[in-house]
Specification:
The chain is mostly helical. It contains two helices and two strands; from the N terminus they run αββα. The chain is elongated, with a radius of gyration of 18 Å.
């Protein structure tokens, strides 16, 4: 696995490849918001369980 340091250090808002073209695997950075997903799942669960 070979990382491109410039791509790895770049600021971006979306998913991006940070591996070099010659890398044996493609490495992606995928931004996530785990807290929002967990909160949404809890809200859905509570809404269904209170019926």
């Amino acid at each position: 696995m070979d990382l491109d340091e410039q791509l790895n250090n770049a600021t971006a808002s979306g998913a991006r490849v940070i591996s070099t073209p010659g890398s044996t695997v493609t490495v992606l950075v995928v931004p996530t918001d785990e807290e929002r997903e967990i909160a949404g799942q809890v809200v859905s669960l509570l809404a269904t369980s209170s019926r």
